[in-house]
Amino acid sequence: MKMDRRSTWIGWTFFLVALLIVVGFFSLGVGAVSIPLQKGLFFLTKGRGTPEYAILFEVRLPRILLGFAVGGGLAIAGVVLQGMFRNPLVEPYTLGISGGAALGVCLNIVSGGPEKLGIFSLPISGFLGAVGVISVVYILSTKGGIMRLSRLLLIGVMVSFIASSLIMLIMAITRTEDLHGIIFWIMGSLEEPNSSLIKAIIFISLGGLIISLIFALDLNALSLGEEEAFHLGVEVERVKKALFLLASFLTGCCVSVTGIIGFVGLVVPHLMRLLVGGDHRILLVASYLSGAIFLILCDTLARVVIVPMELPVGVITGLVGGSVFIYALSRKGASF
Amino acid sequence: MEYKKDILSAFLPFAFFLFFLGDAFALPSSPIPQRIVSLVPTLTEELYLLGVGDRVVGVTIYCQRPPEAQSKQKVGTVIDVNVEKVLSLSPDLVLASPLVDHKQVEKLRDLGMRVEIFQEAKDFHGLCENFLSLSHLVAQEQRAAEIIEEAKRGLEATKKRVEGLPRPEVFVQIGANPLFTATGNSFVNEFIEFAGAINIAGDAKTGIYSREEVIRRNPDVILIVTMGIVGEQEKEVWLNYKTINAVKNRKIYTVDSYRFCSPTPLSFVVTVKELARIFHEDG
After folding, report:
1. pLDDT tens sequence across B195-205
2. In angstroms, what separates the C-alpha of B107 from chain A's closest C-alpha?
């Protein structure tokens, strides 16, 4: 029985890794400028210095890598939060994390930060905004060392509303140039010129996966209920805090680089739960891989739908993710 | 415990592998650009004015003037650039406005392209400065100086014509829902002043303007910058407010948004002349 389950897990992992590789190559191959596949191989070996080489390896590849890291990171943040809250509607964004990040970025843009502090200015302010909101939500929902999850969720949602109202206020009174900066950021994009930032986010995202896997069994216990988890020997309060911080940190890092990309953290964990089941040991791995696949695919679509323009990737994740999810739910019927 | 170790040992080598990814890449650049991508409609128009239209290889979908520009390769909009499309044209100069996503500009520069960002001109003076620096980039300073000279002469002539005439109060509507106007810090404001009138929103801090304030200020003329069909609809809306002088005297005009919002030094003067005619029909 145990062997059986293990081989299914390995099967899923291999399948998703293979799919990820296929999608990666597909995404590398399509874009506004068409580059035939056999020529692609040529460029890989001898094409250095040609525009085609630059398009493949300096424009498309970094986007694919960023899509991998952010898609995976947001998906496992979703799995962790849904697991500990035992609530299917919870995702990194419902807790106000993205709202806080967006507010931080807005304030930075209107105060002229990007000109003074350069390329890292927006990611840093986004991250600080997210950390600010997380701290507020955390402090307000913890009493006597006990973190109350329903309270945390409600406060998170409210903070999220307040943040988006403040953003609209800022947008209404700001200069046109700044307005564009804010809108770009809110719509989310995988375009990121800075390669060290991309490397950093890949590292953080994979690190997040490893840490969350260490907590996989605790998450399994928590999804039975806090009391049950406690009786199973889980240090509930400590684990909850650690998981909340992990998910927030991951989301904060992701959105601070790419802007707000919705839906990945909500839809991917659900779909994977329908496919591979609720055991977090496999659910986390499967969600990470399919989050990556999903975001890379969505970005590919965003790049080619209305050439020469690029759609914001958030448009595609919402449309595709939402439709696929409704379809899957209505087919499986009674899961929720 | 075993299981946790397995995870760690499986992922770490993979993570390190990711750090071996290539970097810089550069295109050779020549002193006078021969392949120009323009991401700003005004600059595209000005390149043609300077007689170097044949060097333009890529434009935005909004670059409608002159008509020849429409046949060039499209590389995106004013704010959204398709990086790979630009790259495939191997330009030696990319002209952009501050409205373009700074990440895309960084990317283009990273890829070794020369990207020049032109700040949006706030007045006629800035417009001429921009035009001169553009001419400098493509080595057509002489031609630019002549064009600017011609524009200045035209402007002086109009100024003389409207001197001493009564100055009507004008409200310029640039956007609807919310009502949006041009503040003092814009060349739209200058259009109006050069043409011998007063912009009622000249002292406003931001472009969002309340309809009540328009009614209170009671402008003599309302200019609606065309936004396709919306311009005509907005005219209908204003006609409901019968207390406004502009409505009483039927002085509501729609003006071409392209020339009004992205002028070249030459079209600037043409617009001022037209406005002067509207403001001082008898003058």
Report:
1. 888 888 888 77
2. 5
Q: Which residues does residue B171 pair with via DSSP β-bridges, in sequence order? A: B222
Q: Using CA atoms, how far apart are residues B268 and B275, in angstroms rounded to an integer?
A: 11
Bridge partners of residue B229, in order along the sequence: B227
The number of beta carbons lying within 10 Å of the beta carbon of residue A301 is 18
Give DSSP secondary structure letters for A216-283.
HHHHHHHTT-HHHHHHTT--HHHHHHHHHHHHHHHHHHHHHHH----SHHHHHHHHHHHHH-S-HHHH
Cα dihedral value A286, A289, A295, A296, nearest 10 = -150
> What is the number of CB-based contacts under 8 A between chain A and chain B?
110
Task: Say if residues A179 and B98 touch (Cβ distance below 8 Å).
Answer: no
A206 and chain B: CB distance < 8 Å anywhere?
yes
Residues B123-168 pLDDT 10s: 888 889 999 999 998 888 888 999 999 989 988 888 888 888 888 8
Q: Does B142 touch chain A (CB under 8 A)?
A: no
The 3-state secondary structure of B29-92 reads CCCCCCCEEECCHHHHHHHHHCCCHHHEEEECCCCCCCHHHHHCEECECCCCECHHHHHHCCCC
